[in-house]
Design a protein that fits this description.
Bound molecules: D-MYO-inositol-1,4,5-triphosphate
Distance between the termini: 32 Å
Radius of gyration: 15 Å
Strand content: 25-35%
Number of helices: 2
Oligomer: single chain
Shape: globular
């Protein structure tokens, strides 16, 4: 009864702090504003929180919705043009939302890139 299925889409695959900037909303460009975010990756989506303790609090608060990225059909690519920072990749969703994610720590950002890319590759394209 207590077995957690690996098919469960709520299982957390990876979580941690990254620098995040949303640069487009539904295809509309936004002013870039980097902020530190607690990022939670599950099979189908990523959620962005301000702090690591917020996901637990969110479970207790019906109606609380973190910023959320649907990974179905999303694209992920490294970019050196969209920021002066190093180690930046972009996620573009089907609905035209664009996010930049960054860390100065090379292995950490590489791990995130591959974890998100694997999640996207396992999902149906739409
Ligand atoms: C932006 C801010 C960002 C910077 C961006 C600036 O200025 O300095 O950190 O992006 O550069 O426009 P403001 O706070 O006045 O909006 P990076 O740190 O990623 O380089 P950009 O315009 O070249 O995107």
């Amino acid at each position: 009864a207590d077995i957690v299925s690996t098919q469960d889409h709520t299982v957390v695959e990876k979580e941690g702090y990254l620098l995040k900037a949303r640069i487009a909303d539904g295809g509309k460009k936004l002013r870039k504003n980097w902020s530190t975010s607690w990022v939670v990756l599950t099979a189908r989506k990523m959620e962005f929180y301000k702090e690591s303790k917020q996901p637990a609090l969110a479970n207790l608060k019906p109606g609380y919705k973190p910023e959320c990225v649907d990974l179905c059909g999303a694209r992920i690519e490294w970019t050196s043009e969209k920021s002066s920072r190093k180690n930046v990749f972009q996620i573009t969703t089907v609905s035209g939302n664009e996010f930049l994610l960054q860390s100065d720590i090379d292995f950490l950002i590489l791990d995130w890139f591959h974890a998100i890319k694997n999640a996207i590759d396992r999902l149906p394209k739409e």
